[in-house]
Amino acid sequence: MYDVVISGTGLYTPANSISNDELVESFNTYVAQFNAENAAAIEAGQVQALTESSAAFIEKASGIKSRFVMDKDGILDPQRMKPRLPERSNDEWSILCEMGVAAAEQALQRAGKTAADIDGVIVACSNLQRAYPAISIEIQSALGVQGFGFDMNVACSSATFGIQTACNSVKLGQARALLVISPEICTAHLNFRDRDSHFIFGDAATAVVVERADLATSEHQFDIVSTKLLTTFSNNIRNNFGFLNRTAEEGEGKADKLFVQEGRKVFRDVCPMVAELVGVHLEENSLNVSDVKRFWLHQANLSMNHLIVKKLLGRDASVEEAPVILDSYANTSSAGSVIAFHTYQDDLPSGALGVLSSFGAGYSIGSVILRKK
Which residue, of 88, 121, 146, 155, is most buried by count of CB atoms within 10 Å of its CB? Predict the structure, then answer.
C-alpha cells in the first residue's frame, strides 16, 4: 500500500466569454420574437407568454456574472441559441480530446512529469460526446501515455469520484500515476431558451495528476488523506438524451433531452446532505471542521456554497476559506471544484488541510480531504 498525492493540476479555459448582459440581450430578443409570433394564441390563452430575463435576476439567483464558452456566436444568435461546433472527421482529435490534452499538459508540467510517468487516463465528466471509442483512450493516445484509459460519468461529482478511483489504483500499486481529466462542454446540453436555467453553465476542462508519494517531486503536492463518496437516486436533475431516443420518435426535440432541474428541490435536498457527508468524513479521520483552512466546493450556485459551509462552520465563511470561481466560469459541472482547487492552492502553507467536494445529479456527492505537503 502506497501513500498517494495530487502532484499537479491543469486548467483549459476557452477563449470566449459571455457576460450576463450579452446573454440577456439574446434571450430577450428571442422572447420578444416568440411573443410577437404567438400573439393571437397568447391572447386566446392557448400559449403562455414568455418572460424576459435580466442580468440582476441571474446574479441574484446564482452568483454568476459571466461564463467561458467554446462557441459564442451560436449561443447568442436568437435564431439558434446553441453552440455551433462542427463535426470532425474520425481522423481528427475530438473537441473533448483537444480540451483534455490542454489541461493535462499543464497538470503534467506542474507535477514535473511526462507522459512516460503516467500509467493511465480516467476521463470523468458529465457529458461525453460519443459512446465509444472512449475519450480517455483517445486522450491517452494523443498524449502518448502507455497503459489504460476509461471514461466514467457521475455528473457534477465525476472528478471527485475519478480521484478516488485513481487514488485506489495508485495506493494498491496498480499504477504509478494516473491522470483524471474532466472536459466539460456544458453549453451543448443547456436549453438557452429556458429562463430559469439559460445562464447556468459554462465550458472548461481540468486535469489532476494522482501519483505515488514516494515518486512525487512537484512543488505542488497535496496528500490525499481520505476520500468518501455517496449517491442517492433523484430525478430533480436529469437529462434524458441518449441512444434510445431514436427508438421513440415522439420524444425527439422535447425539453427533457437537455438539462432540466427542479432547482428549489435540489437546494433543499443537497445542501444538508453535503454538509453532513463532509462533517462525518472529517470526524471519521479524527479531524475537526475548524482544522480545515479551505473548502474547494462544486461551483453550481453561490447560495448553496454559502449555506453548506455555514452549516459546517456554524458561521459565514470568508472568501479565503471557500473561494469562488463561479462568478466568471459559471457552473462547469465536474470541472468546477477542481478549477477552484487549481486556482486557490498555492498560497496555503505546508500542513494546511483542505476539502475538495462536489455534488450534483444522481444525487452524487464526493469529498476528498487533502493536506498540503
Answer: 121
- Dmax (CA) of the chain: 73
Q: Is residue 97 flagged as an active site residue?
A: no
Beta strand residue intervals within 36-147, DSSP E? 66-69, 120-124
341 CB-side CA count, 13 A? 36
Candidates 97, 125, 156, 167; catalytic one: 156
The rounded distance, in Å, linking the Cα atoms of 264 and 301 is 11
Q: What is the pLDDT of residues 206-228, one digit of tens each?
A: 999 999 999 999 999 999 999 99
Closest CA to 47 of 38, 56, 55: 38
Q: What is the grid cell recorded at 223?
A: 496528500
8 A C-beta contact, residue 200 and residue 336: no
Instruction: Please provide residue 284's backbone torsions phi and psi, each rounded to the nearest 5 degrees.
Output: -65, -25
Distance CA 169, CA 4 (A): 10
Whether omega for the bond prior to residue 133 falls within 30 degrees of 0, making it cis, is yes
Classify 79 as helix, strand or coil. coil
Spatial neighbors of 319 by CB under 8 A, at least 6 apart, are none
Alpha carbon 164 to chain centroid, angstroms: 16
DSSP tag of 242: S
Question: pLDDT tens digits for 247-275?
Answer: 999 998 899 999 999 999 999 999 999 99
Backbone angles phi, psi at 357, to 5 degrees: -135, 140
